[in-house]
Design brief:
The chain has five helices and four strands. By secondary structure, the protein is an alpha+beta fold.
């Protein structure tokens, strides 16, 4: 991957609806070579898809919480399957430290968070302990991944 490929990915991350003609113009290529580079980045799996960014708050989803989950060691696979399939779990990571997992969950109201944690997450396979942090204000919602490239 060279400087042009990184710039193509940065521009697509910024606006996935940009035309190949405009994309090519902005990186100094004609439309066809630009299209070929994008297809190669897709083939390599560096570009995995194109998504619409939806406004969570506009949908009434205002409560972000981060849940540290400690589980029974024999139940990792079952817990991971349950977390991966749950619609309110936006992300789930294995962690090193006090807890086994960190989940990012999103719901409409604090009462829904209470229900989610007590009646759903607590009952996922192997869950022994939860520690939850509620987000008060989002400062930086998501940075482009290409900004991490040096």
């Amino acid at each position: 991957m060279d400087k042009i490929d990184r710039e193509i990915m940065r521009l697509l991350e910024e606006d996935a609806r940009i035309s190949f003609a405009e994309l090519g113009e902005r990186v100094g290529l004609s439309k066809t070579p630009c299209w070929q580079r994008v297809r190669e980045l897709e083939r390599q799996g560096l570009i995995r898809g194109y998504r619409t960014e939806v406004d969570a708050e506009g949908l009434g989803l205002r409560v972000h919480a981060f849940v540290h989950v400690t589980i029974n060691a024999a139940r990792h696979a079952e817990f991971e399957a349950a977390a991966a399939s749950h619609p309110s779990v936006l992300q789930c990571f294995t962690t090193a430290g006090q807890a086994d997992y960190l989940m990012h969950v999103l719901v409409g109201e604090i009462e829904q968070l209470d229900q989610l944690l007590r009646m759903e997450v607590r009952r996922m396979p192997g869950v022994q302990r939860l520690e939850t942090t509620v987000c008060m204000k989002t400062i930086k919602p998501r940075a482009p991944l290409t900004g991490c490239l040096r």
